[in-house]
Each structure stands twice: as structure tokens, then as C-alpha cells.
Amino acid sequence: MPARGFLYNPAMLQNVPVARILGFLFLANVVLLAWMTYDGYRTAAGTLSVGAHIRFALFGMVIVLFTHTMTLFYFVGTGSRIKKVVGQYALQQAFVDRTRRFKARLFPWLTFTPLVTMVLIGEIDAALPETAGE
After folding, report:
1. Residues 29 and 63: beta-carbon distance below 8 Å
2. What is the DSSP annotation of 4-18?
3. pTM for the complete prediction?
4. N or C: the chain end with fewer CB closer than 10 Å?
């Protein structure tokens, strides 16, 4: 039974540096996107096979989509936590209002960027010849 208590310990979740993890993932996304773009130019020049570029690009896009999803859920969680703390400690409602305004600007981008990315992947895949992956 001690192992089960170790697997789910709410106090441990308080210490996870989610913002740092998201910052690292953001930097990884920048590097991956630059690398995929460079590989695309190499593929167009004929120095890299199309299959190698597609495999790496699919891996990179999964990381990009994962990062966007993590960021979206992070902001959902922090917004609800801010509401709870403001109510619990009778803080100014301006904190909640500022969070709502920020989320109103951010959420459309966080929602539609992964959708656009998936559509682009599908469009690029549909435009490739049948033998591209071989």
C-alpha cells in the first residue's frame, strides 16, 4: 500500500515546475521548426530524401502539438486556481478580470494553431506523390 500513496501525492504536484517545462518545450519547438524548415530546403535541393524529411517532420509536429495542448491546459488550470485563491483570501477581483482578458486574447490562438497545423500536415501529405515515403 505505501507504493500507491507514493504514486498519487497531491503535495508532489504542487512542486512540478510546469512553467519551466513549457519554456523548455517552447525552445525545443523553435529548434524543431527551424530544423524541419532546413530539412525541407535540403529535400527540395535533393540532398535529403523525402521520406527522411517526412519522418522527422511528423515527429516535430507531434512535439509542437503536444506543447500547444500543454500550454492550453496550463492556462485553464492557472485561471481556475487564480479564481480559487482570490475567493479564498478575499483578494481584489482585478486579478480574475486581468486573467480573463489575457485568456480571451490567448485562447483563440492556442485553440486554432494546432488545428491549422494538423490541416497543413494533411494537405502536405495529400499533395505528395504516392512513392514519397519509400
Report:
1. yes
2. HHHH--HHHHHT--H
3. 0.72
4. N
* Residue 84 contacts residue 101 (beta carbons within 8 Å): no
User: How many helices (H) and strands (E) would you count in the chain?
Assistant: 5, 0
**According to the model, what pLDDT value does residue 115 have?**
84
Residue type, 49: S
126 by Cβ neighbours in 10 Å (0-12 / 13-18 / 19+) ranks as exposed
Q: Tens digit of pLDDT per residue, the chain (134 long)?
A: 455 555 666 666 677 788 899 999 999 999 998 998 899 889 888 999 988 988 898 899 889 889 988 988 888 888 888 888 888 888 899 989 998 998 899 888 888 888 888 787 777 767 766 554 55
Give the integer Cα–Cα distance in Å for 94 and 100. Answer: 10
Q: How far apart are CA 102 and CA 78, in angstroms?
A: 12
Q: How many CB atoms lie within 10 A of CB 114?
A: 17
What is the rounded distance in angstroms from the CA atom of residue 89 to the CA atom of residue 91?
Answer: 6
